[in-house]
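Quick board copy: two proteins, each given as sequence then tokens.
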Amino acid sequence: MFAKMTLKILHTLAAAGLIGGLGAYMLMLVFAPQETAADYADLRETIKAISDYLLLPSLALALVTGLLAMVVHYPFQERGWAWIKAATGILMFKGILTIVSAKAGHAAEMSRKIAEGTAPPDALQGLIDLEWGTLWIVMALSVANVVLGVWRPKRIFPESKPAAETPPAAALHAVAAQKIEREAA
């Protein structure tokens, strides 16, 4: 019981950190000063810190505690919503790790080069478009995971149709006996 509650608390805190970190990342992109290349480079360093110290650890904690909760509490293994949360958690981890976190470091480095004049001013344009798309997808998956965790629908997948009822053994024996009688006659 203690392990289950501890995992639930850690999972909830991790989800809050993840959604808060994504929101902070987005707000920084929109509202932080970006008038000069140096300002933009500072913004990118801040985003890298948010990614490294909030987003990635929160997502890792949410994923690990969610999977451990499925191990500790067996009924979760039989629930479709829990498996959907696990699958989307892995997708979010891939998105954060390979795109958001990795690109945050690259963007910070590239923006420093732009500020120093060693890279062209439009060097980050393609990255920014990809960054926004990924942020919105990961945010949508994060919110969907919270909704599934709170709502916990009874049925996600349609109920399988029961197998055809097998006739009672007596009826089978009667059919076999009739067949034997016909063959004997």
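And the next:
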Amino acid sequence: MHKKLFVFVIFLAAIAWAANKADFSGNYAVQQKKVDNATTASLRVIQTDSTVQVTRVYGDKSVTNSCPLDGSEGDYTTETGVRGKCRAQLKGDTLVLESLVASPPKANTPSLRFDTIEEWRLSADTKTLTIKTEIKCPDMSADVMAAAFPNNPRTEKYQRFDAR
């Protein structure tokens, strides 16, 4: 009898956990009037139990990446075509996306590694997506990094434009 009760309690806990898991699936548009080259104009997100697929739209160009949610690495491509690796993780109501890319080496310039960490949060009504982005480069000094990325970290807000 106790064994059946224990299994039932575990089953209910699993259902409750799955019901409370944040789902970022949807279509979003950036919440600012002027869009520069560093800002994604819109996002299309498809989240499953195992993967988060993010399509970033920059004007007439789009890039789609699928980041595994289990901690393993997936293939990643920047908007400029540089390839790297990515992964995703749900931490409570926050989705953390991490991408690691290395810049292509040029004459007399070594390749630089860039680790981009995004923390995604949805508003209580799920209509606003806030993304905090921080770029790290272990191959660059702090002062050069500050000059190269003056708005680091930066926060952007996106408005959901599909029915939820």
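Board note added afterward: The chain has a mean pLDDT of 85.
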